């Protein structure tokens, strides 16, 4: 066999393996979202993927390994999302626009990957995912504090931390409601979430960011 063909075969096998892994992770995402992590099984994931359990076990030894791989990929993508969503804000930007842009990016990610919420907020997620999520949460709070610090230079560190926790807490509470609805009702809850954050932040930072006199209300 020519040398170039010998090199090509491992590449093809690797590509097939990567496609199969992607297929299994997509199936696992569907199962975890529908049933939750605890009730999911490798048999259900294999069935969703249209493969035999034996094929699944060629790539993952158990359900936990699947969840960890899926969680790692989602957390990496989420880090990219909040890097874009929580970029420094131009002081001339209206508060409504700044909040709306950030919320839209985070909501879009969670609506595109509903399994992220199912995995990260489930009661029995694997320990490694919990640790990764805690690290993500801490970094996210730090980024929010950094944004607020630029807008609230006279606020004490304790108050700044508390405000960042409130912003993230409001978002997470609203996210659960958003994901529980679809269509026009989901959009209405997204707007309600934005309004809640704007009304909370406006007395604090409204004088430092561009302002609009009225808030849009949900239809």
From TrEMBL:
Residues 41-60 bind DNA. Pfam families: TetR_C_22 (PF17928), TetR_N (PF00440). GO terms for molecular function: DNA-binding transcription factor activity; transcription cis-regulatory region binding. Keywords: DNA-binding, Transcription, Transcription regulation. Gene3D superfamilies: Tetracycline Repressor, domain 2. Residues 18-78 form the HTH tetR-type domain. This is TetR family transcriptional regulator.
């Amino acid at each position: 066999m020519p040398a170039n063909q010998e090199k090509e075969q491992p590449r093809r096998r690797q590509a097939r393996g990567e496609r199969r892994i992607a297929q299994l992770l997509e199936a696992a995402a569907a199962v975890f979202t529908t049933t939750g992590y605890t009730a999911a099984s490798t048999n259900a994931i294999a069935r969703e993927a249209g493969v035999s359990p034996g094929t699944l076990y060629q790539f993952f030894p158990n359900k936990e390994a699947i969840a960890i791989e899926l969680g790692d990929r989602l957390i990496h993508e989420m880090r990219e999302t909040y890097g874009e969503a929580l970029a420094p804000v131009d002081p001339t930007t209206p508060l409504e626009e700044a909040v709306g842009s950030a919320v839209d990016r985070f909501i879009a990610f969670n609506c595109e990957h509903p399994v992220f919420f199912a995995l990260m907020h489930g009661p029995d997620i694997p320990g490694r995912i919990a640790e990764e999520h805690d690290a993500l949460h801490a970094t996210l709070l730090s980024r929010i504090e950094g944004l607020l610090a630029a807008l609230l230079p006279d606020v004490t560190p304790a108050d700044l931390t508390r405000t960042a926790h409130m912003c993230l807490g409001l978002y997470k509470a609203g996210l659960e409601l958003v994901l529980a609805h679809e269509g026009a009702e989901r959009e209405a809850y997204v707007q309600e979430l934005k309004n809640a954050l704007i009304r909370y932040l406006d007395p604090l930072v409204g004088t430092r960011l561009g302002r609009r006199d009225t808030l849009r209300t949900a239809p």
